[in-house]
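Objective 1.3, modelling of assemblies. Example input:
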Amino acid sequence: MQREVKDRNILDKFCEEFCAIVEKHCKYIVVSGFLAIASGRTRGTEDIDMIIERLDFDKFKLLFQDLTQKGFVCMQSSDAEEVYSYLKDNISVRFTRKDKELPEMEVKFVKDILDEYQLKTRVKLELTGLDVWFSNVNVNIAFKEELLKSSKDLEDARHLRIVYAEQVDEKEIQSVKQLIQRFRL
Amino acid sequence: MREGHIEQVERWALFVKENPTKWKKIHTDFIDALFEKHDSFREKLLQMPNGKEKLQKLYNIKNKEGYNWLK
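Predicted structure (tokens):
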């Protein structure tokens, strides 16, 4: 079901514009809170979390220039080399529209087998009406129930379990939870 | 998980699932209202003494070049 543009909220528009640029340069996924919010969960957020494949500096520079030319700004620095050094050390970097402190896109490089698995099994979710690659629903449920575990995250997981009931795969959730135990806890 | 609140989360999730053409408008109004509220807060804060510095600190902005209101 493709939604009309007028249905887009501020977060949707920001996310779609940012993702359309990133898509031209590398594989990416949007993960965690915004997946739940784009799927109808009624709660606020100031940032959207994105994981991108690891790029060498030359490729990253092109992405950075493209983002800058299209009106996005990195909150840490305007220097591509400095921003790349954070990403390379697995530190996330935050982008906003020029002159606006909100919303933010928090971007990081793939860092382990779990991130690679998410990138490999990425999906577009019809319910969201957005042309955006998300990490798959089962992985998100596993992260929220096994690693993050705040009230907000457990409620996100409950929401996802209901709205995507047909896609929920307990076997996959369990195997991702085992990977989380092994690599993140 | 917050007792009681989870029932509300479940009721809304069921509404989303069962009303694929109705939930989005309600949801969009809710999300946009949060950002509109932020914008009015931001305008007020920027008029207060040290408002710029407070906003910069709140959002941990290191790159002043990207934000004209910080210059």
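Residues 3-70 of chain B form one domain.
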